[in-house]
Amino acid sequence: MNPYRDFDNYLKEYPDENGRFGQYGGQYLPEKLIPAFKEINDAYETICHSSQFINELRRIRKEFQGRPTPVYHCERLSKMLGKCQIYLKREDLNHTGAHKLNHCMGEGLLAKFMGKKKLIAETGAGQHGVALATAAAYFGMECDIYMGEVDIAKQAPNVTRMKMLGARVIPVTHGLKTLKEAVDAAFEAYLNEYQDAIYCIGSALGPHPFPKMVRDFQTIIGTEAREQFLEMTGIFPDAVCACVGGGSNSIGMFVPFLADPVEIIGVEPLGRGSGIGDHAASIAYGKKGILHGFESLMLQDENGDPAPVYSVASGLDYPSVGPEHANLHDMGRVKYESVSDDEAMEAFFMLCKYEGIIPAIESSHALAYAIRYAKTHETGSILACLSGRGDKDIDYVMEHYGEKFGIK
Ligand SMILES: *Cc1c(COP(=O)(O)O)cnc(C)c1O
User: Fold this and answer.
1) 121 HSE (CA, 13 A, CB side)
2) Domain shared by 202 and 226, yes or no
């Protein structure tokens, strides 16, 4: 018996025409931007049914991004842990080294269809900025990336990459000079330039239609993985997991499995612990709130403002989460667990040593959960999304964890 057959029509029902996923999502915008988002929504609703658009995106994925990415069976790692088998969906092998390009290429193609000349976005650690600058170069568009001054100083290699790819990196100098201020600045810029530019959000969040659009573009992960896993083993995995920052690689991994007899687990970053400011587990510890144009679960301080967040993985430290995850949590279809910095770093080194793969610290959270699952299950299998490669992280890891793990 499959208890999840009710989810057969899930994609037709969520989101509704107002961009709501149950009690979350929607569109909270300054008056002036409402027509701009309507234009984006209308264009997307047109092209997502156009065979020309679908074929062009398919060609880009194959010839430029190098898709499909493989599913890989971690035989040595699994054997070391017991009898349960760990499999990875290798998004680290996607061009630019992570899943983010999946939605950036989709957004770039949409911008081209709309006749826009420029892509605008914010970036925190620089990963979204690099992926979007890549898309802009591919489509021959201008690209403005807003980035906090503090992040610019910390993420020099990604700043260099964006510049090499032809993007303008615009420093944001107010407030804490990090991601939240960068989002504010990018929105501000978009407000003045929406006639010629399109704003490209970095995850499955923001005002409608972005959570839906980014999900649709990222669904290639789960669609491929489901088919590949069935072909490799003849059955479904018992469980599927992925790390949840804003929620894009995870929603793309999960949606194709919703109607299958598969347990689904989203993995949030527990950082240094459960105290306010020590983690970024928005579903586990958040309350309903509105931030950056959408409603979702949000980590809040005593005044109801976004709480400070922390994770060893800079791609996971956002004080809210994509609205679809909040709803899947309410529906009880996806379970959300958390993994601490230490558990993630242990998983990082295990994958290096036993499988010859250096994972991103973000992805190491999903891997850590898969390892925990394998240790506590006698048989069966778990398929984890390895959202990105760890080249960007090696200097940081050596400095902070080299001694602990005996390589320094
Ligand atoms: C940005 C990033 C994430 C987190 O973003 P999601 O939108 O939650 O997927 C995870 N892994 C890697 C490698 C990233 O670069």
Assistant:
1) 29
2) no
Cα–Cα dist 122/161, whole Å: 15
Confirm whether 15 is domain-assigned: no
Q: Looking at the 3D structure of the chain, how many domains does it have?
A: 2
Check if 27 has its Cβ closer than 6 Å to any atom of ligand 1. no
Question: Ligand 1 pocket, 245 CB below 6 A?
Answer: yes
Contact 135, 104 (CB under 8 A): yes
Indicate which atom in ligand 1 lies nearest the CA of residue 244.
Answer: 8
Instruction: Quick: pLDDT tens for 81-122.
Output: 999 999 999 999 999 999 999 999 999 999 999 999 999 999
pLDDT in tens, 246-277: 999 999 999 999 999 999 999 999 999 999 99
10 Å Cβ neighbour count for 28?
13
**List of residues 6+ apart from 88 with CB closer than 8 A:** 71, 72, 74, 357, 367, 383, 384, 385, 386
Question: Which helix (H) or strand (E) is 171 found in, with range?
Answer: strand 168-172
Of 267, 270, 248, 201, the C-alpha closest to 98 is 248
Domain boundary among 153, 185, 214: 214
Nearest alpha carbon, ligand 1 atom 14: 315
Q: How many angstroms separate the CA atoms of 249 and 98, rounded?
A: 9
Judge whether 292 counts as a catalytic residue: no
Establish whether residue 247 lines the binding site of ligand 1, counting it when its CB lies within 6 angstroms of any ligand atom: yes
pTM, two decimals, is 0.97
Does residue 74 carry a catalytic annotation? yes
* Pair 92, 105 in one domain: no
Distance 377 CA to ligand 1 centre (A): 27
Is 348 in contact with 340 (CB distance < 8 Å)?
A: no
Domain CATH code at residue 391: 3.40.50.1100
Would 207 be classed as within a structural domain? yes
Residues 34 and 45 in one domain: yes
